[in-house]
Amino acid sequence: MSNNARATLVWREIPGLDPNNCMELHQCRTKWLAIDGYGGRSNFACISLAEKREEKEFSPTSDQLLKHPLAMLALVPKDAALFAAGAIAGAAAKTVTAPLDRIKLLMQTHGLRVGQEGAKKGIGFIEAFTLIGKEEGLKGYWKGNLPQVIRIIPYSAVQLFAYETYKKLFRGQDGELSVIGRLAAGACAGMTSTFVTYPLDVLRLRLAVEPGYKTMTEVALNMMREEGFASFYNGLGPSLIGIAPYIAVNFCVFDLVKKALPEKYQKRTETSLATALVSATVATLMCYPLDTVRRQMQMKGSPYMTVLDAVPGIAARDGLVGLYRGFLPNALKTLPNSSIRLTTFDTVKRLIAAAEKELQSIVDENRKKQEQSSSDNGSRF
Q: In the chain, where are the structural domains located?
């Protein structure tokens, strides 16, 4: 062998080995190898990588799952469980508060809709409530609720999932999430969910306040024909600006207040409800004017192109109070809505943690039984 001979290191993929399913490297040993014919030695590092295997033999039996039904929840993917909880809670909350939402929309847009007719530009809560009942009957209070329910299912799922994902991204090197990190995670989650579901929100508004439409499909086809695809995103800018601080403040205050409470109170349902109520109140007071701007920019024939046009325009026509038109029904709708959604999400997370703990206890119990059985069999020989 010549003195210029060199060793070649070859990397080869190990079929079926998942790097995300491997245990930590515990050993890296150096060995001395003899080179044939020369007796020389060279350093060679040998690294062993052990793949973790699912201990399926310790999985709970059907009888054990029936005896411990909570453990079944741990078998459902965590994201799927949170998705279902957020969707159901959001749909139920929206349906319960739909009449208040309809009243709020009429109060927010009444001045723009009748402005050219010289009619009364402001409309009160009682007046809007009476007007809907007189003109449309009981079902009028739930007009436009179906597209809202359809929208809230992906909206809740995307928002809650995105919030958990962004919290992981914004954690510091020490693993802790700062106040700024929580605010950023909430803002990004709010904007992500809003962008995905915004066209459905526009359809709901048109169906709720513009006469002559009976179905969401009819509204969508008319918008495409007369205004083009871009009309589905009219007012997206102020929507993103409005939802980012709202969700940021809402989620951040909820997390921080709960974290500051004694541990014995943190896991109570009434604590989650009260905390969500406080966080939603603070967020609503801060961000409501941007919601009014967004709604008026979504209207067909709206004279406002930007937020900077809309804010002074609304203030000039209706006064500063015009920016808070519909605040009362919105607060009555938003506060319980937010409380139900955040409380349900918090409760499901606790249930999932309890289910995982119970499942692990069953697995540990099965493992001990297997080890005991093996020990007993070995002692016989």
A: 71-355
| 84 phi and psi angles, rounded to 5 deg | -65, -40
**What DSSP letter does each residue of 156-201 carry, written as one string?**
HHHHHHHHHHHHHHT--TTS---HHHHHHHHHHHHHHHHHHHHHHH
CATH number of 71-355: 1.50.40.10, 3.10.20.600, 3.10.180.10, 3.40.640.10? 1.50.40.10
- The pTM is what? 0.62
Q: What is the pLDDT of residues 336-356, one digit of tens each?
A: 888 878 887 888 888 888 888
* Residue 66 DSSP SS3: helix
Q: Of all helices (H) and strands (E), which one includes residue 252?
A: helix 236-260
Q: Are residues 202 and 229 in contact, defined by beta-carbon separation less than 8 angstroms?
A: no
Cα 250–Cα 251–Cα 252 angle in degrees, nearest 5: 95
Q: What one-letter code names the amino acid at 178? A: S
